[in-house]
């Protein structure tokens, strides 16, 4: 491998040394106030020939043509094009960019005349295509995990459905407490509810990996409570995904990679092309395929799992984004996509023999195995087929001075289980080894009308926005085939159902829905050119639990061009998901390697009502933040934001209550229930922290060095567990130490990211260091599993082979760092590591070839 890398680097160096005589165009790029713009990009249009400005804003560019066209750009400024000839000196002043791209408003503000840098709340703008050009990650969750410090996502293993849909959090809150938008419109959530051995237990979330990175122009992350602006789920913040609108340009690529251990092979192929419609219209298409093989990091011999690692997955996506002018003042738009994923993961191993615990008896045949089928035991494989579809249609138009947007959006996510390499022990030797285990689906239909107007003659500008929204959510569960869930009569009372994942039973089947209607008012007043205040109110009424009213206040004070202060306060809410209200199943759980059959009861069920579990109500929040942005020099930017988030009545999945419980055991026995868990509003939490982002650009030699540091410092406090009257005094079962540790582990104390990106001529290199804080989990013996702080290092090299092709090679986690090893009999996963920090797959090598025409 080292010899290959040396050969590639040698070829790159030889390429640098070649070339023919060229002539110079020189110049200087500056801001309106005369400050030089460091790191501005100057590119010869239609080629890869370019350079960037140095610390004085000056540049020199070698060209072959007697006359050429230059494209000058810099983050935060408007891009311009000019004609230039060798021997001339170009002096340009760039205007700050105030209107965002393609009339898609920046998340966090409804003003169409405000940039992300001018909002009174922190908004991160992540140019996905620039990021993916120099990193090894290709799926959206993993890209954001290593780019955005306040974002956390870990691949799961041995966690049933979570092995196929990664849970993701913002600022350490629940997966369902972050709202996801596409082009400013609400994105539907996944049908999956996280349950076993995973972060976000008892939560639903949005499956970001159904959206290919190749279809995305940029991602805006609003790190502030925004329920008053956007509705339910926006307690932690908002992630707005803005799709590409490129035209008459074909881009694509092939990415491939493999882990150091020789597994987890990855292949990603994609293409994007946009068709111009008239002068201003566009239809942009993306096709993307991502295949990923399993990894296997087995634990100790005879451990709970013979196979331990990430699931394999094949994901195919097709996305479209369009806008077509209608007359002079209107445009029709449509965007959406379809994603199909088949994923396959290893469950816990069923051994051929088990220890009876009796020294006189020793071992015996495992009643969960049929030795005639699997003489040496077996490891079931849980498979998921996920179909995700969405479409959003709308019309933007003008009524006098008012901008209007009429929209309808539909999204659907269907999750279906099959279990392979398994059996139904109660069927004995006649048992199939493959079962259809059923599944569930979620759909959401939203209709909205939004109006906004800017009044330039009120103070220094006043923006008024209002609108209404109607939404219908639907959720259903479908049963698996009979053999996947039924226990057939046997002389030795062997367990029934498909081992690894028992199917949904006819008694679990349901089809439910709800509606809600909302109205909002959003205002922004520039009291002066330096002082902004904004406010928003929102009312929503749900058909299943009632009404909620929320508000938000925010302000921004610009002391000078170099420093501004900002702050906000808001109330928020999150409506309980339909899955939290209605999900129910009978399953096999593992505690300390021992199989236990139990149920999760529907929150509306007779069982829940009889034992006194109250009906779910909304989670409510208070969110406060204060911070500042500074620009000590033209090439140096600083943002610091502190936050406090109080959440009341968080929904959790309780611990397990058995039929031996002295309070409700007799009730469970009468209902033929051995062990039961429930969804309930049981906990208040307080989360506070600090986000710090520093960016610096400098001219080093003939190249440009961009340095960025981003850090999130976070802490969460848990309130007293709120039980029901019948279960008073059982707080340690209602939400035990293990479950509390999982909640806290979703809010790591810190995550720090230092990235250095150097570009010189056709060559670029990217070095990234990510520091993950220590994490503590509580094992089955109620002893702490401590995972110490770790740091990973990623390194990538890129070279522009021509104006059409670019090659990148590199490695993520080049020092092969793993979390601290634990006892596999006392982890949630049955392996040597829980799903913490950087994952447990190790060093990864990758190569990427990109093209553009």
From TrEMBL:
It is a multi-pass membrane protein. It comes from the Bacteria. Residues 345-813 form the TonB-dependent receptor-like beta-barrel domain. Belongs to the TonB-dependent receptor family. It is found in: Cell outer membrane. GO terms for cellular component: cell outer membrane. Keywords: Cell outer membrane, Membrane, Signal, TonB box, Transmembrane, Transmembrane beta strand, Transport. Residues 117-238 form the TonB-dependent receptor plug domain. The keyword Transport applies. Gene3D superfamilies: Carboxypeptidase-like, regulatory domain (2.60.40.1120), TonB-dependent receptor, beta-barrel domain (2.40.170.20), TonB-dependent receptor, plug domain (2.170.130.10). The keyword Transmembrane applies. It holds the Pfam family CarbopepD_reg_2. This is Iron complex outermembrane recepter protein. Residues 1-21 form the signal peptide. InterPro entries: Beta-barrel_TonB, Beta-barrel_TonB_sf, CarboxyPept-like_regulatory, Plug_dom, Plug_dom_sf, TonB-dep_rcpt-like.
